[in-house]
Amino acid sequence: QVQLVESGGGSVQAGGSLRLSCAASGYTYSSYCMGWFRQAPGWEREGVASIDRLGSTTYANSVKGRFTISHDNAKNTLYLQMNSLKPDDTAMYYCAAGQQANWLCRLLNKDSWARAYWGQGTQVTVSS
User: Fold this and answer.
1) pLDDT value at position 40?
2) Most buried by CB count within 10 Å: which residue of 36, 38, 55, 84?
3) Rounded to an integer, what distance in angstroms lies between the CA atom of residue 37 and that of residue 92?
4) DSSP-based helix, strand, coil % in the chain, nearest 5
């Protein structure tokens, strides 16, 4: 059973930084692609970033140049470094692990990740 536990959320002012972590267990990393999604109240869940089995990364246009996704194989932990945060980044952030093909990993939409495992989320609030 795959388990994902996010941490690292919090409240920051615009321009600040946060690093989210997702501790994973119950799976073999090489069999999965990983991603970060977020959902603000009243909005659909949207893809933020993903990393496929080859280590290739994909970012939503809204976070390119500000966010970095990475994975520590030794710690089986996924990270999302978020810099230059904006109030529009305020949302619940979720970690996901999916077994879809690599090309689907790079599609940051909920349909491509429909069968993924999800964490419980961590709240990020950015004030202006």
Assistant:
1) 96
2) 36
3) 8
4) 10, 50, 45
